[in-house]
Amino acid sequence: MANLQLWDQIKEWKSTKYKWVDLTHELSPETPHWFGFQPLQAELLFDYAEGTPEDKAAPMRCFQYSVASQYGTHVDVPRHFWGDGRAMNEIAVQEMVYPLVVVDKSAECAANADFMLTVEDLKAWEAVYGRIPENAFVAFRSDWYKKPNLDNPDENGVPHYPGWDKAAIQWLVEERHIGAIGHEPADTDPGFVTTREDAYPYPGEQYILEANRIQIEVMRNLDQLTPVGGLIVCAFPKLKDGTGFPARCFAICPAD
Questions:
Q1: Alpha-carbon distance 184 to 169, whole Å?
Q2: Can you name the CATH fold of 5-33+72-254?
């Protein structure tokens, strides 16, 4: 007889004991994205309209889309910042599912748009919830997805948004051996770091990708998740030589 344990587990996961949370922004020209990218464009190739083959009439509708690789909710793979790093087609399917840890710093980010998540914040989280498990996906909750503009510029056009301290990411990789990180802004590093002229502007992002990990940016709905006990699924195309692409991410976590 076949082992039906997985079938029984999916029934359990879809019961009222758990909730499924979509962590992905809808993909459209209005999707939040990094300021350097153009909005998504769609060209209608075929439509349902009746006509002759010369009119390109067909019993279907399909589009050709033009979109930046790191647009909206998206995955960054090592090759994005590391020329010798793995491309999208080299990411194993096992790397698309992780135990999920959510570090909530939304109150701090509301009080300080330049908030930086530190090693001390992670240790304080562990003091309450326990050790961060190996191969976990650590999500930094800031509630930044609720902002009408992810860059949050001041009156002089200078952006202000929260991010990771490189040392915090390094601690997670080297001391906790995590599998991936994620966050709601469009950058790993806070705005005051990415706009500095006296230093490399993306130290945290450079580190996590050169550590051979992936990350998910421009996430949403982290405020609907439990701090511990959940799973996250991050699915994306198997794009040859790809550095990143819009992703579909969701979490399964306890309902209570």
A1: 16
A2: Glucose Oxidase; domain 1 (3.50.30)
CA–CA separation, 150 and 188 (whole Å): 12
Digit-coded pLDDT (tens) for 113-134: 999 999 999 999 999 999 999 9
**Do residues 145 and 184 make contact, with C-beta atoms less than 8 angstroms apart?**
yes
Residue at token pair 């039906």: 4
Question: Is residue 204 within 8 Å of 220, Cβ to Cβ?
Answer: no
Q: 193 and 164 in contact (C-beta within 8 Å)?
A: no
pTM: 0.94
* Structure token digits, residue 40: 């998504």
What is the identity of the amino acid at 58? A
Nearest Cα to Cα of residue 141 among 36, 23, 9: 23
Please tell me the distance from the alpha carbon of residue 170 to that of residue 223, in angstroms, as a whole number: 25
